[in-house]
Design a protein that fits this description.
Helices cover 59% and strands 2% of the residues. The chain is an all-alpha fold. Keywords: Signal.
């Protein structure tokens, strides 16, 4: 974990570096941008496999379309929960907890995060793994690092994705969400690199494995300040930590409501 944190710190310094190729709002400059970005990536510690994945990355028009059309976070809480299927998540979440109480008890013992919170996030993000994305992660995240809208935010995640390729945890062909998120709970690559843990004990971190994904999610929340045994509703100490997972107010409130109902 120390080495992972060191690598990410190097990546997080990247926005201050000069970028020879300009950002762009269409595919026309992507190839030139990749050539220059490869030099930055190599300087940050990305190895041969990561650089090869970068060279194979394709400009993702579907990623740009998704980034320009994020409407649900502007809904009212009631509309957001309806659109995102909260009643189904709660019902299925209660059943998942009942079917495997030992798993969730172990996660709460190790990280202090209650089952309801982890289950609500899992359900909200991918419908419990039923849809984990349709876009190559490396292509998606490098497209966003190149795009002029938010390159400062996505550049460290692009570096991290290439480091994950170096580590053998993803490949250029790994499929994720349209913003480059990975697996059951949709980790951005920088967070995957820093907070990922081997939940099933097989010696590797695979975000498409539900145990690894849930343990990593619990670890993320704990490292972001989750206080075991304290509340997570609005105004309670752990509610702000849900905001570390997603900055949208309606998302945070929905997770708190669903988690409370799942936990009974």
């Amino acid at each position: 974990m120390i080495r992972i944190a060191t690598l990410l710190c190097a990546a997080l310094a990247l926005p201050s570096l000069a970028v020879a190729a300009p950002c762009g709002n269409d595919s026309s400059g992507f190839a030139a941008w990749k050539a220059d970005f490869a030099q930055e990536a190599a300087a940050a510690g990305v190895g041969e496999r990561g650089l090869q994945a970068l060279s194979q990355a394709q400009y993702s028009s579907r990623t740009i379309s998704a980034d320009r059309n994020q409407k649900s976070f502007s809904y009212s809480l009631e509309k957001f929960m309806e659109v995102r299927g909260s009643n189904t998540i709660i019902a299925q979440g209660r059943q998942r907890k009942a079917n495997n109480p030992g798993l969730y008890a172990a996660l709460e013992r190790d990280y202090g995060v209650p089952a309801g919170v982890l289950i609500a996030i899992h359900g909200m993000e991918t419908g419990f793994g039923n849809f984990m994305g349709d876009t190559p992660v490396v292509s998606a995240i490098t497209t966003l690092a190149y795009d002029c809208r938010r390159p400062g935010f996505f550049t460290p995640h692009a570096i991290s994705a290439l480091m994950l390729v170096d580590r053998g945890e993803i490949t250029n062909a790994t499929i994720g969400a349209r913003h480059g998120e990975l697996g059951h709970t949709q980790f951005l690559p920088g967070n995957a690199l820093t907070y990922g843990v081997d939940g099933n004990g097989d010696g590797r971190i695979d975000f498409n494995d539900v145990m690894d994904a849930l343990a990593s999610t619990a670890n993320y929340l704990r490292q972001k300040g989750w206080q075991p045994g304290l509340g997570y509703q609005p105004g309670e100490p752990n509610f702000a930590v849900i905001g570390e997972w997603n900055a949208a107010g309606v998302y945070q409130q929905a997770i708190a409501i669903m988690a409370r109902r799942i936990d009974g």
